[in-house]
From TrEMBL:
The chain crosses the membrane at residues 36-55, 91-110. InterPro entries: DUF1980 (IPR015402), DUF1980_C (IPR048447). This is TIGR03943 family putative permease subunit. It comes from Streptomyces kaempferi. Residues 62-85 are annotated as: Disordered.
Amino acid sequence: MNRQAQAVIMFLVGAAVLHAGFTDLYLRYVKAGLRPLLLAAGVVLILAALATVWYDRRASKDGHRHTEGAGEGEGQEAGSGDGHAHREPRVSWLLVLPLFALILVAPPALGSYSALHTGTALQAPLAYPRLPAADPLPLSVVDYAGRAAYGHGRTLGNRRVEVTGFVALGHDGTPYLVRMALNCCAADAQPVKIGLTGHIPPVLEPDAWLRVTGTYTGKRAKDPVNDGVIPFLDVTEARPVPTPRDPYDESWNN
C-alpha cells in the first residue's frame, strides 16, 4: 500500500482505539487500568497518520517543483522510468474490515464456552483479609472460591455471602457460577468456578448473569479439564442481574 493508504489505515486504527477507550468497549479486551495507555496509543496513531499525509504531500509538491524547473529532456528522462505504473493490490483494503467491525459491533465477553473448555485458575490466596460486617456479605467469585477451597471456609463460618457471576452448565449438568479472571487482557483470561447446590433455579440459561446468596458448604469437585479444585456454594436465593459494566474479575491483581 502507498503512504496515503497506510495513513488511512493508521488513522482508522487510532480512531477505533479511541472509540474503545472512551466507551466501556475496551473492558471487553483489556483490564480497566490500561485505559490511559489505550487513549495515548490512539492519539499517537492519529498524529502519526496526519504527519504521514503531511510529509507525503510536501514531498509530492517538492518533486513537482523540481520537475518543472528541470529541462525538457531531463524531465522526460526522469519521468519515463520503465513505462509501467505499479498499482497496489486492492485486496489490501480488506484490512479495514476488522476496524469497522470493532467500531460497529461490540463483541461479547468470554463466557460459558471458554469457561467449560478451560480449567479453573483458582490459586491459594496469600492471605485472607478480614471481612466486613454485612449481611449478606458481597464477595467476588475469586474471593469466595479461595476462602472455600483453601481456607476450608474458616473465615466464612455460617455467614450469608452474595456472589455474582455468569452461569455455565457442565457436561454432566452441574451448574457453575463463573467469573473470568484477568491478568492483563482477554487473551489471558481464565475462569474461576463455583459449583452451585441447594435452592437452584429450575431453569438456568448458560451465560446468564446471576446474583447468588448462600452459605459455605464443604462440598467440592475436581475440574474435569485440569483437576483443579472447584468449591461449592449452598444457594438460598438466586436472581438474574444485568451484565456488569466490567465482566471480568481483576481482584486477584489487587
